[in-house]
Design goal:
about 180 residues; alpha/beta; Rossmann fold; two-stranded antiparallel ribbon; 7 strands; about 40% helix; about 25% strand; globular; binds flavin mononucleotide
Length: about 180
């Protein structure tokens, strides 16, 4: 059984990201064999992380530990990312900076949403995840704020994105399976 974490990297109040993450989990489950792959939503907003390097409260120390353990428990990931000034959200970058061994020899794929489907923040993420030891898939899903949302707030994705997600899942699960073999050697 492969375990894939769908990691939502936006914590903004009223965020669009939650609908995109929920769609991704629902569709991924529909498109996959539940005997072979399971998907779990990991919401960064559930983890009260300090800025890396600043003094953490006792609760935040526990949050850092929970975040690390949760991320380490997966064989692969789908990162759900917005685009903020052509990069990823600051909270997401901060949260990733707490991690490294948790990601070693695993695979990641990206579902982005933004003016241009978060294309630029996904390219930004590719450079970051390479340094974290993750292999990133060729296929993304890019949701447009103009055409996949009504009034840029109500998520109503075009049907063709399901086909894109299917290709993304195919790449992600085959790499996650292969890399699991490497980790078990
Ligand atoms: C500070 C800020 C910067 C943004 N910069 C960009 C940008 O560079 N490109 C883009 O396509 N959208 C940009 N946006 C729009 C966001 O991608 C959009 O609001 C998205 O819904 C944010 O994700 P969230 O709703 O999950 O927080 C920006 C939004 C904010 C608040």
């Amino acid at each position: 059984m492969l375990k894939i974490g769908v990691v939502l990297g936006s914590v903004r109040e009223g965020r669009n990201g939650l609908a995109v993450a929920n769609w991704t989990v629902t569709k991924a489950k529909e498109l996959s064999d539940p005997k072979l792959v399971e998907y779990e939503l990991v919401d960064l907003a559930d983890y009260d992380l300090p800025f890396l390097g600043t003094k953490a409260s006792e609760e935040q120390v526990n949050s850092i530990q929970s975040w690390s353990e949760k991320i380490a428990s997966f064989d692969g990931y789908i990162f759900i990312t917005a685009e903020y000034n052509h990069g990823i959200a600051g909270a997401f970058k901060n949260a990733l900076d707490f991690l490294k061994p948790e990601f070693k020899d695993k695979a990641v794929a990206f579902v982005g949403y933004g003016g241009l489907g978060a294309a630029r923040s996904i390219e930004n993420l590719r450079v970051i995840v390479a340094e974290l030891g993750l292999a990133s898939t060729q296929r993304n899903v890019n949701m447009s704020l103009m055409t996949d949302f009504e009034n840029m707030t109500v998520f109503n994705p075009a049907p063709f994105h399901e086909g894109e997600l299917q290709e993304l899942l195919s790449q992600l699960t085959s790499w996650s399976k292969a890399l699991k073999g490497i980790r078990e050697v």
